[in-house]
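--- STAGE predict ---
source: upstream dedup step, 1 unique chain passed
mode: sequence only
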Amino acid sequence: MNYPENLKKGDTIGICAPSGGITKPHKIRRLEPAIETLKSMGYDVIETASVRKGERGRSASAEQRAKEFMELLENDKVKSIIFATGGDFLCEMLDYLDFDKIKTLNPKWLQGYSDITGISFLFNTILEIPNLYFQTIKDYAMRPLHKSLTDALEIQSRKRSNSRIF
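--- STAGE serialize ---
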């Protein structure tokens, strides 16, 4: 396995929407506090242009979603990518990913679930990069944070001494 670097305070977490975006008002109201939670924990956060967009279940065209995901993968400051949401249309963008290029990049932690399984499977099997099947970004708005959310960050920072993975 090609393990990503340990996530540290001061590192950047990227948010992208490779399937659906966050467009419903009650979900948008959760996005800002979620970002603030990560910032208060010491992380920088950036989001791609399509995170808050959506049309017919997609945050953007397949090409645009792939481009934004690739930009986060290529950004050396980004150490972890948390997906905006699941959805039904991730597979449309897979043909536009540059897997040869991804193989040359430093691996990143990926976190999400639902439709994100399409990326998770490819990263685990073809690229041999582990990723986390955990909640998406909006859940970081909950108070108090559920243990699974702090666990996800601890796994990425490898602070979980009882983990059998490391």
